[in-house]
Amino acid sequence: MRTHGWSGAAPASDAEAIDRILAAAKRAIDKRGSEIRITDIARELGVTRQTVYRYFPSTDALLVATAISEAAPYLDALTEHLAEIHDPAESVVEAIAHTLERLPEEPYLGLLLSSGRSGAFAAGVTSDTALRFGRTMLQRFAVDWNAVGITDDKLDALTEYMLRILQSFVIDPGRPPRRNQVLRNYLTKWVTPVVLGLQTKGTRKVMARRPAPATRGSGRHRTTASPRSSA
Question: What is the dotted CATH code of the domain comprising 11-57?
């Protein structure tokens, strides 16, 4: 760790240096959104750009890391929301739908999933940091992934698939956008077969005639069905 700079108060460890950089990035994002520059972060911290680059190789990497560090409260809320869902396909469908519904109130989560800066941030959902975040999300579901045979490489594949689906809806929500039960019907139709395909054969459930999961939640998070066709 470099010990000079830092406005005369060098961090005691790399972990502290990273925390300071993320805190500065958060302040910059709160003011200007994703239009931040490493130069601005370095100037605020009293270090050179090269010092920031030692920890984050690009502005996009810093944006992703900041978004994930600020998304922890949402993970807690999502875990509570899905606490009573034990079916893997239903959990994934509801997690995607609920996350899309909550995005307007979760700016950092939206930053993680957006295409950002004319597409430069589009690769964010496949970064190692984003994939670790997605894996953490899945592991907090009330699903026994081992029991259904979705482990290791399969869970990694499901993580990437889920993040890609989320990002695709953020980039283009549809015309008009699918919402509420219509969104869940659509996701059930197209996402469920993928999840079933990852499960061990003996654990698969017959879903062909199973209706889409009803919207969950309470209070301001509860939604109602839309009259639009689910096709």
Answer: 1.10.10.60
